[in-house]
Amino acid sequence: MAEDKNLDAFKETHEEVKIDAGRKIRIGFIGCGWIAESHIKSLLKQPDVEIVAGCDLIPGKAKKFFEKNGVEGVKTDYADHKEMLADKSLRLDAVTICTYNRQHAGPAIESLNAGLHVLLEKPFTVTTEEAVEVMRAEKKSGKILSIGFQPRFDNNMIMVKDIVQSGELGKVYYIQTGGGRRRGIPTPFGTTFIENETAGLGALADIGCYSLDMVLNAIGYPKPLTVSGYKSDFFGKDPNYCGYPKAKRAEYAEKFGVDDFAAAFIRLEGGVVISFRIAWAMNLDTSGDTIIYGTKGSMRIPSTECWNGSIGGDLTIYHEVAGKQVETKIPQIIPKASAPSNFDKKIRSFLDAIKNGGTAPVPTSQILYNQAILDGIARSSDLGREVEIEIPEI
User: Fold this and answer.
1) pLDDT score recorded for residue 21
2) Quick check: pTM over 0.85?
3) CA 261 centroid distance within chain
4) Short-list 277, 265, 189, CA closest to 232
5) C-beta of residue 386 within 8 angstroms of C-beta of residue 224
6) Which residues contact 278 (CB under 8 A, 6 or more apart)?
7) CATH number for the 25-151+343-362 domain, one of 3.50.50.60, 3.30.390.50, 3.30.110.30, 3.40.50.720?
8) Which fold has domain 153-318+371-381?
């Protein structure tokens, strides 16, 4: 096996960063459901944040949410997010949008139009057209809009991109990627993830966007050209699916209206092709490792049992050294117990961009292509043929 003397370059570094706690960022919540729990826990760790308002479509839910998390003095008596955005007494700097998928676009546009910075949970939107409309509002407002892709901040994901961008693999021409869960349709808090009226997309939007981002970000996010896609719902619509609570199986199967599996063949600018698959449920332990094929070398990224925002083990590069075929192992980076989580890094990067006048940590210009692929897979599957990816001018 070839030895790489520069492997230490990939080791985790964790520098203490001083935060100016005297300058508070005033934040409001739009949506106070499941993912909002992760947002508030992370925001409460930040010394320069003041949570001042929150709203939810369900009456009383926002008030209970903040009480549960021990946050006092938060205004929650709003009928909807529009009423909260119109309340100038809040002096909001930013909002975090934690609604279900089909409610991403409207609140994002209206928050940007109100002159606020926005942290928008993934997926970006449900359709490409919605994403474009949000980006037009972003452009007009001049505010920061960052999309909630916390795996971007994982040191192993950064390492994957560094290796690809270094040229060690040569020209990348083919990628197989994806992931999945043997049994993992997300229904611990109800059906908003599985109903078409609220979610729009299923496994594609929940974890498919992450696995696509891992490889697209590594190769510089080339523009998607065409997609031939497939999606199915065999497990979600099965009243005998063992992943549902026993008493809810018939109800959940009836309400299931999204994809629990999807696959696609995606062509990108620059002659790169992606073979993709993603699953919320399957009769298999893994859908396979991610492999990035290059003209000088190829890299294997071990899969995880359930997509967790990182990698499943050491990377392997297959290449030639001095005319010999060799494999180089790149050790997986194990975070220190004291290191901030990827979610905390996502939150912190957004706050730092606001305070320092920076740009969005996860920019819409990239995630638009991610969204266009997800949308393209769904459209292609519905039409039963390959579709071209067309993205309107922003």
Assistant:
1) 80
2) yes
3) 17
4) 277
5) no
6) 178, 179, 180, 203, 204, 207, 208, 211, 261, 262, 263, 287
7) 3.40.50.720
8) Dihydrodipicolinate Reductase; domain 2 (3.30.360)
